[in-house]
């Protein structure tokens, strides 16, 4: 089928009330420093969910904004796809809780677990739904409350992640706007480099799991870093090739916001100067599936994306999963 099929008609985002700065980790007894975190990652602060703040509440708020932006009401939603690996409950999917909160009674709702690539995968699934002709309007969200699945005693991971949600409305393309090219990959051989080892069906939660903290996120940082740089570069190439464009044709690049050094390496590979790269990892940390849609919403609201802008997206995450898209707005 010929692209573009699907376009982004609205965006929104939400984060918890509380911002946690790098300096605050010391008071929590974690041996780290603002300097170490900023130099290695570019992160200055991240938002952390507090009492009463859940994945459902953040995603619902972001979704309401995106729906208002697109002029879409809940009854028009045909599907809700939520990219997340930190659902409010293991069963049912958080997407159905969001459906209920929004009153989107006609929609089919499900979660999609692709870690930091979650929104990018979800957008491509939505495009596929639209291509069937049976769906018109899809709410595509990336949302995470990673603060509840990181080990707050593990400095290798707890300084990196943040909570938040970014929502987008995907509708049928008009005037040649929308997804020009898209790419997805995964490699399960590398699953153990970034994972939650226990607490699932294979090793059910018990006192031993709780005591050793093996239900929390564990990561081999250096290995992940290497793969992220390689995969995001490859993904950028694929999407550019698919759209028959080069880096110089791109008005803005929105990469997954994990680490400023990964972002810089990806941009350099794609021949895109940093002035054309959207960066907010300094304020949000790595919000996994939420990172790209939060950045997309900020970029639009700041006027960095206007009608006709050509935007390159690239993501990488646990799995490993990775992918990319070129979108004309
Ligand atoms: C995690 C990461 C920032 C570490 O940076 P790095 O340059 O690889 O760090 P190094 O391996 O040189 O240094 C690690 C050392 O710093 C220490 N360290 C780890 N976290 C620390 C922290 N928050 N504060 C201070 N020191 C820390 C380690 O204990 C280790 O010490 P050791 O050498 O005595 O064992 C980097 O590997 C990274 O960004 N990886 C990718 C992570 C990511 O983006 N994951 C999500 C992908 S979607």
Provide the descriptors you would attach to this structure in a database record.
329 residues; Peroxisomal Thiolase, Chain A, domain 1; five-stranded mixed sheet; four-stranded mixed sheet; 33% helix; globular; binds coenzyme A
Please tell me about this protein's structure:
Helix 3 packs across helix 4 (94-102). The protein folds into two domains: 6-175, Thiolase/Chalcone synthase (Peroxisomal Thiolase, Chain A, domain 1, 3-Layer(aba) Sandwich), CATH 3.40.47; 179-328, Thiolase/Chalcone synthase (Peroxisomal Thiolase, Chain A, domain 1). It has eleven helices and 13 strands. Strands 1-7-6-4-5 form a five-stranded mixed β-sheet, sandwiched between helices. Strands 8-13-12-11 form a four-stranded mixed β-sheet, sandwiched between helices. It is of the alpha/beta class and 329 residues long. The two termini are 20 Å apart. Residues 32, 36-37, 40-41, 116, 155-156, 159, 219, 221-222, 224-225, 228, 258-259, 286, 316-317 line the site of coenzyme A.
Integer-rounded radius of gyration: 19 Å
**Bound molecule kinds, no repeats:** coenzyme A
Shape: globular
Taken in chain order, the helices and strands follow as: EEHHEHEHEHEHEEEHEHEHHHEE
Can you count the beta strands?
13
CATH topology of the largest domain: Peroxisomal Thiolase, Chain A, domain 1
TL;DR?
With 329 residues, the chain is an alpha/beta fold. Helices cover 33% and strands 24% of the residues. The strands form 4 sheets. Strands 1-7-6-4-5 form a 5-stranded mixed beta sheet, sandwiched between helices. A 4-stranded mixed beta sheet has the order 8-13-12-11, with helices on both faces.
